[in-house]
Amino acid sequence: RNLLGKVIDSVYSTAERDKFRTRLEPGSEPGSTEIYISHRGVEEVVTGRDKETTTWTARPNDPGLEAQFLAKLMTRLGAASDDAQAKTAVDAAIVQPQHAKLVGQAATPARAIEVDEGFDRAWRRVGLALDRVGFTVEDRDRTQGTYFVRYVDPDVVKKDGFFSKLFSWGSSSDKDKEAQRYRVLVKAGNGSTSLVSILSNEGQADVSPVAEKILGLLNEQLK
Q1: DSSP tag of 143
Q2: What angle is formed at CA 146 by the lines to CA 149 and CA 60, rounded to 5 degrees?
Q3: What is the distance between the alpha carbons of residues 143 and 74, in angstroms, rounded to a whole number?
Q4: Hey, how many other C-beta atoms are within 10 angstroms of the C-beta on 18?
Q5: What is the DSSP code (8-state) at residue 53?
Q6: Which of 56, 57, 94, 186 could form a disulfide with 145 if both were Cys (CB 3.0 to 4.6 A apart)?
Q7: What are phi and psi of 89, to 5 degrees?
Q8: Given CA atoms 120, 134, 170, 13 in this order, what sign does their dihedral have?
């Protein structure tokens, strides 16, 4: 790094990129606000027969980095570095022994995700999963358990490449036209479980391949 910097600083580039999203949502307690931190990353991988080219590929979400970011933010907002509440929040961000699975639904061919948690915690986890996967959440209605999201299927739209999509902070009008709108419904199930399902923009059960792909992406984050 130092050697290259002596020649021209711009020729040096790390082989990893990280992006963090900070989302604020009204808390369950009156007058409170919940803050969520989600991470997405890519790394540059050498490819080709002679290792002459590189390509950017996705890295797994890193709860450890999310926890570090959360701890720094809490300290900035007034929590002491040795605050017990801050430590509890950071530990919770790393250790998450939860379970979810894909299940069928009665009276509809569409599948759903069964989460082994009550509605309040399932609602929070689905919001974080949407952030981690990279969905654009246009609106949310907690009382109805609905997230209104936009999603661009990477298998259909490839003209900009993975790296530019992942780390683009805004959306052009062309991308807005390409994005399809869906609803992610979270509702209380039997006992202490919740169900997560994908609806069309009109609020109907969606059994399309893209809806099934969205369900699979969320299941990977929730299970």
Answers
A1: T
A2: 55
A3: 28
A4: 15
A5: E
A6: 186
A7: -65, -40
A8: positive
Unique residue bearing structure tokens 């949407």: 130
20-67 pLDDT tens trace: 888 888 877 888 888 888 888 888 888 877 777 878 787 777 778 888
Tell me which residue of 13, 15, 17 sits closest to 65, measured CA to CA: 17
Residue 222: beta bridge partners?
none
> What gap in Å lies between CA 190 and CA 15, rounded to an integer?
46
Rounded-to-integer distance, Cα 53 and Cα 161, Å: 16
Cα of 112 vs its chain's centroid, Å? 18
Burial-class residue 158 by CB neighbours within 10 Å (0-12, 13-18, 19+): exposed
In the chain the first and final C-alpha atoms are separated, in Å, by 40
Q: What gap in Å lies between CA 101 and CA 175, rounded to an integer?
A: 32
CA triple 41-47-48, angle to 5 deg? 160
Token pair, residue 155, equals 């298998």
Query: Are 151 and 142 within 8 A, CB to CB?
Result: no
Two tokens at 158?
């490839």
> Does position 172 have pLDDT exceeding 50, yes or no?
no
Region for residue 14 given its phi and psi (left: phi exceeds 0; alpha: psi -120 to 50; beta: otherwise): beta
